[in-house]
Amino acid sequence: MNTSENPPIPFNDFTREPEELIAKELEAVESVLRSGWWVLGKEVELFESKWANYCSTLSAVGVANGLDAIEIGLRSLGVGPGDEVITTSLTAFATCLAILRTGATPVFADIDPETGCIEQQSIHRCINSSTKAILVVHLYGRAVDMENIINLTSNLGIFLVEDCAQSHGAKYNGKPVGSIGDFGAWSFYPTKNLGAVGDAGAITSNNQELILKAKMLRNYGQSDRYYHPIIGMNSRLDELQASLLNVRLEYLNLWTNRRRSIAKRYWAEISNPEIKLLQQPTEDENHVHHLFVIYTKKRRDLQNQLSKMNISSLIHYPIACHLQSALKEAKLDPNGLNNTKDHCENCLSLPIQPYLTDLELDRIIDVCNNQL
Ligand SMILES: Cc1ncc(COP(=O)(O)O)c(C=O)c1O
Q1: Separation of 273 CA from ligand 1 center, angstroms?
Q2: Which atom of ligand 1 sits closest to the CA of residue 199?
Q3: Is the pLDDT of residue 4 over 80?
Q4: Pocket lining: 95 vs ligand 1, CB cutoff 6 Å
Q5: Is the CB of 189 under 6 A from ligand 1?
Q6: What is the rounded CA–CA span in Å between residue 170 and residue 183?
Q7: Distance between Cα 102 and ligand 1 center (Å)
Q8: How many Cβ atoms from other residues are within 10 Å of residue 290's Cβ?
């Protein structure tokens, strides 16, 4: 392979971010350093209010990462030992780990193979008297079709929780994800659509009681200084990350638009009977394209061809949560998780980061169409 003809196309590349953004970030960092206040301060408060506003919720609570956001949100709702939480097995293991850390049991429903998201009939098969919540994951950036799930949770009197770690800015029926259920949990890990320069997370909600409890839980269960009415943890967001998020948030819509235009080209131009694309969203607002995932029985061949042309690709996810050896025993849909298994065996994620160039996109599409 000639690298000068085929320069590497990385999956993510933060060095491509514009000078203008870096200059604003350096200014923000300097201002925090000079402020002399580094954990849970004005920058965190500003980010919490900006993020709540972006998500159309009453409030947001900044925490250390997305895993903690889910755990703290669930614990704020009182989910714990003896409870079951229905979720998808096709997600980052953190989703499942957060449920386990509350003491509750994850119960895995199957996915809709057209979208990769949790499937409604399968949810029904997982419900029993111990079900305390349904935790949907807006996977790959796609807002889950929520109508039936909203009706189901309200009829059963159970909680509806959203893992929004991959879906910053996606909307369902005009409502931002993270504002639909009892709370939304966010990760700002660097590779997310809105990423910090390290770990960060948040919880969004319209429930003020939940917000107050989450604020206590993130800070040792403290109500007032040195008073601890509940058992909490240390999951505070620091001022540096919050100040960078305040700057980077200004770019989120721009980045989302670029992701959407890349996805549109993939949908319009990938044409190969060996490759199946996931369902296109009905409305642009439904999807923010955190990942562009395709399905092919020839995954290994395609990944090899891409790699020969210096193009990175990844698999989300090679092993579903219920098959991870950390789980000694997993509770599942009694009909099994056949769609999840099939997807994990055949899915492949193509680069879709916002600084991918049109020429790079041409090269990726060319491999998909002509080299498999
Ligand atoms: C769907 C999903 N949930 C939760 C998380 C956990 O977020 P974090 O890495 O910030 O703990 C991630 C991140 O990988 C994710 O993709």
Answers
A1: 33
A2: 10
A3: no
A4: yes
A5: yes
A6: 15
A7: 16
A8: 25
Please give the distance of CA 345 from its chain centroid, rounded to a whole number: 21
pTM of the predicted structure, to 2 decimals: 0.98
Pairing relationship of beta strands 159-163 and 183-187 according to DSSP bridges:
parallel
Q: Tell me: the pLDDT tens digits for 246-292? A: 999 999 999 999 999 999 999 999 999 999 999 999 999 999 999 99
**The pair of three-digit structure tokens given for residue 346, joined into one six-digit string:** 């055949």
- Give the pLDDT confidence of 54-92 residue by residue, as tens digits: 999 999 999 999 999 999 999 999 999 999 999 999 999
Tell me which residue has tokens 């971010």: 17
**Does residue 137 line the site of ligand 1, with CB under 6 A?**
yes
What does the block give as tokens for 268? Answer: 């319009």
Tell me if 350 sits within 8 A of 292, measured CB to CB.
yes
Rounded CA gap, 187 and 227, in Å? 29
**Nearest one of 89, 39, 97 to 67, comparing CA atoms:** 97
Domains of the chain: 19-249 (3.40.640.10), 253-370 (3.90.1150.10)
The percent of residues above 90 in pLDDT, for the chain, comes to 98
Neighbours of 96 (CB within 10 A): 25
Residue 189 alpha carbon, nearest atom of ligand 1: 10
Q: How many angstroms does the Cα of residue 187 sit away from the middle of ligand 1?
A: 6
Per-residue model confidence as pLDDT tens digits over 236-252:
999 999 999 999 999 99
Does 163 sit in the ligand 1 pocket, CB within 6 Å? Answer: yes
Listing DSSP states for 190-216 in one string gives TTSSS--SS--EEEEES-HHHHHHHHH
How far, in Å, is the centroid of ligand 1 from the Cα of 135? 14
* Burial classification of residue 328, based on how many CB atoms lie within 10 Å of its CB (0-12 exposed, 13-18 middle, 19 or more buried): exposed
Strand pairing class (175-176; 331-332) = unpaired
3-class DSSP state of 102: helix
CB of 71 within 6 A of ligand 1: the answer is no
Ligand 1 center to residue 107 CA distance, Å? 18
> What angle (nearest 5°) sits at the alpha carbon of residue 338, between those of residues 335 and 344?
150
Say which amino acid occupies 19: E
And the tokens for 72?
């703290």
Q: Which tokens go with 290? A: 């955190």
Nearest to 87 by CA among 349, 351, 327: 327
